[in-house]
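== Fold encoding ==
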Amino acid sequence: MKPRTVAARSRAPYAGLLLITVAAGLASRRFPDGQPDWVARYAGDTLWAAMGFWLFALAAPRARTVVLGLATVAVAFTIEASQVLHLPWLDALRATQAGALVLGQGFLWSDLLCYGVGAGLAVFVDRLVSR
């Protein structure tokens, strides 16, 4: 059976989606008072997963959408699970602003749900954009 060929995604829309997602995610953390509590609490993690999807789409423009979605969830879940590890060098990295944004600071079960929702939303948007 021949593998299905996938047309390469145009990188420009995904770069734009990446920038918008990063800006929205940072704003959700920076300005929590202007949002409903559930948005302030969960939007950043949801958008973090969508950002991961856009990065994967930029890196592998020919990858199937489902592969990008699964890779996004796998990486997000792995990073979240790593938060139960408290190695000195890893905690020092997480103490930096960049480290905290990328690696998080403490394990939360709700983050796993947010990552699934964020990846799912990105898959949905990807299907709209790639049409």
Observations:
- DSSP finds six helices and no strands in the chain.
- The two ends are 25 Å apart (CA to CA).
- The mean pLDDT is 93.
- The CA atoms of residues 83 and 125 lie 29 Å apart.
